[in-house]
Amino acid sequence: MNLKYNTDLGGMNTFRMKVKAACLLEYDSAEELSSLLSDTRFSSELPLPLFHIGGGSNLLFTGDFPGTILHSRIRFIEPVEDGDDVHVRIGSGVVWDDFCAWAARNGYWGAENLSLIPGEAGAAAVQNIGAYGKEAGDIIESVECLDIQDNRTVVLKGSECGYGYRESRFKNDLKGRYIVTAVNVRLTKKYSPDLDYGHVREALAERYGSAVIDERRLTPAQVREVIIDIRRNKLPAPEETGSAGSFFRNPFVLPEQYAKVAKVAEKENLGPVPHFPGDDGLIKIPAAWLIEKCGWKGYVEGNAGVYRNQPLVIINATGKATPDEILALESKIVSSVREKFGILLRPEVEHI
Fold this sequence. Notes:
By secondary structure, the chain is of the alpha+beta class. Helices cover 28% and strands 25% of the residues. The chain contains 10 helices and 20 strands. The chain has helices spanning 30-38, 40-43, 96-105, 121-127, 200-208, 210-214, 220-234, 255-267, 287-293, 323-341; strands at residues 2-8, 20-27, 50-53, 59-60, 65-72, 77-82, 85-91, 130-131, 134-135, 140-147, 152-157, 178-188, 242-243, 252-253, 276-277, 283-284, 300-301, 304-306, 314-316, 350-351. A 5-stranded antiparallel sheet has the order 6-7-12-10-11. Strands 1-2-5-3 form a 4-stranded mixed sheet.
């Protein structure tokens, strides 16, 4: 256990917000966490509220946190092979990309498209992280949690987690009650690359030759390498530039809303509007396109800015940005997109 009071959180959030928490509690096992929370003498002294974080990669601290930050240091990767299937139990404190690297090294398919996404395994299950046509929910079989209300272990099947686009029950009806302690995923040894999102197939062919793809000789490690290259070209490295990754969700709109956007684009010579079919007849329009066409790409104001290679990312441009500067820039972007296109952007990043 690691317990600290009035502690700096600058190194525990990828935005690098220089904020403090009244208390930080890190634990090394589900049993230790359960024991700590069941000790009423101990738990009654913890400042409230309690808030659990992973790698701090999908959140924005809007100021000092008055309660207790909980953080998992449960780190293990336990595989069990069953024919072509590989069932892997992952501690919630395992860095997600370390798990993806491990899977690729061992020739297991399923996690390679999710490479280099910042954060930890527990948070991946909460956020349902996704990239390049894959989501964590696609490979999660079950999630082990501690119900802090009843102080008991609960296992939810993947189908019970309510996974959707950047959504899960852990962000909704179970928020604040369940703490993820381990994630169980299913990978496979069977050749099964997913290459049809964005420019993944083209990038692989350019690096390794189309014959490698046509003859089914790709490896998970090769796909992972290309995914990493694509991400590094589009997104800032967290160790170099503070950000929370994609700041806004891609909006899903009604056909008539899409038609209005297309009309604006035609009138202002913005080019064709990229769009993709969604569920229930909705149409997805990339938030990055909307933001770029409002002129925000590469914009810097004070210490906050919009990343030059990916307008979906708000950055701590100088390393000295305050929460208020980030919030002000967010508000301006949202207002401009709504004014030009009539679409209200919603943040993907959680505001704390």
